[in-house]
């Protein structure tokens, strides 16, 4: 008898979960102004393609221009309204400072900010060069959190329309 009640509870929770689940409407991001960092390969590239299919306006960033050019071409093919490139190294504080300013200028604001960049590490945990570990911290922590949020307070807030509706951090670092 107890197991029947358990199954009924599980089924009921499943049904309620399904009924309250928000459905995604691609139209909701048509014409959205999106900045995607680390967009030359992998997760960032795929995120850019999904926004492009929905008809978003994109600014994509990475260190490698040639790879970004390929992503840009495919995004335009998939239906992006426009795609701008910013060649930048998120390990460089100067580049991080300029990315948001350039994106806001190019797009006229910012609706979605996707922080996807990561630094490459050729060594295992607790092995390797300490200076490389510091660089990784600069890219993955400073570049994702501290600088963007400080920059948001200083520069983005005065442009009310440029305050991102959503800030997405990928969990790859």
UniProtKB/TrEMBL annotation:
Signal sequence extent: 1-23
Keyword Transmembrane helix: no
Cited Pfam families: adh_short (PF00106)
InterPro entries hit by this protein: 11-beta-HSD, NAD(P)-bd_dom_sf, SDR_fam
Top-level taxon: Eukaryota
Keywords: NADP, Signal
SUPFAM superfamilies cross-referenced by the UniProt entry: NAD(P)-binding Rossmann-fold domains (SSF51735)
Gene Ontology MF terms in the entry: oxidoreductase activity
Family to which this protein belongs: Belongs to the short-chain dehydrogenases/reductases (SDR) family.
Listed name of the protein: Hydroxysteroid 11-beta-dehydrogenase 1 isoform X1
Species annotation: Pelobates cultripes (Western spadefoot toad)
Source lineage: Eukaryota, Metazoa, Chordata, Craniata, Vertebrata
């Amino acid at each position: 008898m107890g197991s029947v009640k358990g199954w009924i509870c599980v089924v009921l929770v499943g049904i309620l979960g399904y009924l309250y689940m928000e459905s995604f409407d691609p139209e909701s991001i048509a014409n959205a102004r999106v900045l995607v960092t680390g967009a030359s390969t992998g997760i960032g590239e795929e995120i850019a393609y999904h926004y492009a299919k929905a008809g978003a306006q994109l600014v994509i960033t990475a260190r490698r221009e040639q790879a970004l050019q390929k992503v840009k071409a495919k995004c335009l093919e998939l239906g992006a309204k426009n795609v701008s490139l910013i060649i930048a190294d998120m390990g460089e504080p100067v580049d991080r400072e300029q990315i948001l300013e350039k994106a806001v200028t190019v797009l006229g604001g910012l609706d979605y900010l996707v922080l996807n960049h990561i630094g490459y590490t050729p060594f295992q945990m607790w092995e390797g060069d300490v200076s490389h570990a510091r660089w990784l911290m600069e890219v993955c922590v400073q570049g994702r959190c501290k600088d963007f949020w400080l920059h948001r307070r200083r520069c983005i807030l005065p442009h009310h329309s440029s305050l991102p509706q959503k800030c997405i951090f990928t969990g790859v670092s």
